[in-house]
Amino acid sequence: MFHLRTLALVVSSVLLAGCATGPDYHRPDAPLPEHYQSPSAVQQRSASRPASFAVWWDGFGDPLLSQYVTDALAQNLDLAQATARMTQARAGLGAATAALLPSGNISGQAARAYQSAETPLGQVLSSTPDYNRYGNSYETDLNASWEIDVFGGLRRGRQAALADYQASEAGVAATRLAVAAQTADIYITLRGLQARLSIAEKQVSTQQELLEKVQLLNAKGLAPGYQVRQTEGELAQVQATVPVLSMGLDAAMNALDVMLGTPPGTHRSQLALPGAIPQAPQIASTGTPADLLRRRPDIIVAERHLAASSARIGVAVSEYYPKFSLSALLGSATAVSGNNLFSGGASQSAAVLGLRWRLFDFGRINAQIDQAKGQEAEALAAYRLSVLRATEDVENAFSALVNREIQAATLTRGETALASARQSSFIAYRQGTASLMDVLHNDETLLQASDARAQAQTESARAAVATFRALGGGWQPPETPAP
User: Fold this and answer.
1) Of 19, 36, 54, 102, which sits 20 to 30 A from 194 (CA to CA)?
2) Of 402, 376, 382, the residue nearest 467 (C-alpha)
3) What was the pLDDT predicted at 16?
């Protein structure tokens, strides 16, 4: 009795001390610069419309774009999968929490047996007068058990499960951010392809007019035959771009339908009428690289995986130490009659203090600890790499946004100049001082400049989407960490 009391006191004191094996987790330092390379250039852009960081897609000023992003966030199947994974992680956290608590169950049975007379027991009993080979038994019990988490292995397991749940929660946010960005990117690409396809069709028409003019001059002996062949080749080159652009447009429409969780072709009629290429909005605040640790959900995912791997080292180390458990039974059993089941004579009870210790299995435990430490080292490298790549994403997005907008502005000025030149050549043609071929050549040059400008506008809008995604826009990080 003295030893049991001593053991109980030791167990209670250790539990009150709250010790746990393995290292206590602290978020490691991340290799981050103090500021971005060119945030002022991004903030000084001449965009006319500001954008909210939380719902940046509304800043493009395109109602259809906003509608599609909103629908995708409600219907996308990648997001549904991420949410299902979070549900599974929540269930794992519940199981890890339940492992810290006592468990109980109620069991009962009623049995009727017919004793063989050929067994040794049956031969002895059959020699007894009035022996009845039929026998009945009744039993019902209440069982309770509790593994006492003396050295914190179960608590470390719960910490790992909590970190996994938080990682899956951040994973949902990362998927949400990716879905919004991909939907906007596909929509902008689609509008850009529609603009380029319209320009290409005008180019085909212009080249056909030019070919007809050259053929007419050739028939009159005023143009050599090689000019006819050259013009035919240029027409074929322009015509060849139309099916390529149409193919890309079909692929973009199908991809948008899949992002919205609908069969390809669902929104084709709604998108059949070409629309303007959305204009990139103003980015009021870019924050600092340190803000990425809170803004970017993929970094949070990597950091929570690191926390989980750290906790699992404690789970592995706890196997060095004994495991204590308490169990109790309170019930009633009888072999006479069911009416006697709950009588005083049928009552039964038991209390057990259990011990399990892998005393001669330390080699396997060492291997498990080494494996857990290796997983933590891998998670640490993955976390630091995710931080570096996040910073790289932001820097690349800033550079693309600024330079693409400069390119688009330059091409717009060039297009304006070429349009003026084309108008002047047309006036000269009507006055008889220029030929129709000069006008058509100017038309072709203008259309080529228009195509380049449309591409640049599309890429600048896509760069804005990439910037919002790189900065982690589109979700609200928690104000305080989960307990």
Assistant:
1) 54
2) 402
3) 43
Q: Which residues of the chain register pLDDT less than 50?
A: 1-4, 6-17, 480-483
CB atoms within 10 A of CB 430: 10
Residue 60: CB atoms within 10 Å: 23
Please give the pLDDT value at position 460: 94
- Residue 389: count other Cβ atoms within 10 Å of its Cβ: 15
CA angle 373, 379, 382 (to 5 degrees): 145
How many CA atoms within 13 Å lie on the side-chain side of 227?
15
Give the pTM: 0.84
Residue 457 has a pLDDT of 94
Pairwise CA distance, residues 213 & 241, whole Å: 23
Residue 301: how many other CB atoms lie within 10 Å: 22
- Give how far Cα 313 sits from Cα of 92, 254, 358, Å: 18, 47, 17
Contact 325, 75 (CB under 8 A): no
Q: What is the pLDDT of residue 37?
A: 84
Work out whether the CA dihedral 337, 343, 344, 350 comes out positive or negative. Answer: positive
Q: What is the pLDDT of residue 181?
A: 95
- Cα dihedral 185, 191, 192, 193 sign: positive
